[in-house]
């Protein structure tokens, strides 16, 4: 709708401004680093796969095998001690905080 064109342009500009922040640039860089490193990518993918499997079993009230719990715990431990994943987590927290603050600012203007 034509009446929202200006608003959409401002939304695109805000999105670009957020993408240009140091935290987002660094987060993309660390994600690329993980994607380009076979060992880190495998660790991420293995963790994601077992976490999804266990979440699905839990949602279906199905039993979770001790071996699956052990595997998830071991993968989480490896990720917690890896400097690249530590940096990713720090940057994700920073990015989420930024987005929370942006949303709060937008919401504060809607209450006027």
Question: What can you see in these coordinates?
Answer:
- 86% of the residues lie in helices and 0% in strands.
- It is mainly alpha-helical and 112 residues long.
- The longest helix has 28 residues.
- Give the integer mean of the pLDDT values: 95
- Largest beta-sheet characterization: none
Shape: extended
CA(first)-CA(last) distance: 24 Å
Low-confidence stretches: none
Counted beta strands: 0
Q: Radius of gyration over alpha carbons? A: 19 Å
**Total of DSSP H or I helical runs spanning 4+ residues:** 5
**How would you spell out the order of helices and strands?**
HHHHH
Helices and strands: which structural class? mainly alpha
Helix content: over 70%
- In percent terms, what proportion of residues is strand? under 5%
Entry keywords:
112 residues, 0% strand, extended
What is the compact description of this entry?
This protein has 112 residues and is mainly alpha-helical.
Question: What is the topology?
Answer:
Elements: H1 5-19, H2 22-36, H3 38-59, H4 66-81, H5 83-110
Helix pairs in contact: 2-3, 2-5, 3-4
């Amino acid at each position: 709708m034509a009446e929202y064109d200006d608003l959409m342009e401002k939304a695109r500009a805000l999105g670009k401004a957020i993408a240009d922040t140091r935290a987002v640039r660094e987060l993309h860089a660390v994600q690329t680093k993980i994607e380009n490193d076979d060992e880190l990518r495998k660790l991420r993918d293995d963790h994601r796969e077992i976490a999804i499997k266990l979440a699905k079993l839990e949602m279906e009230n199905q039993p979770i095998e001790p071996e699956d719990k052990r595997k998830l715990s071991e993968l989480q431990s490896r990720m917690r001690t890896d400097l690249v994943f530590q940096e990713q987590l720090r940057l994700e927290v920073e990015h989420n905080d930024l987005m929370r603050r942006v949303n709060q600012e937008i919401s504060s203007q809607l209450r006027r």
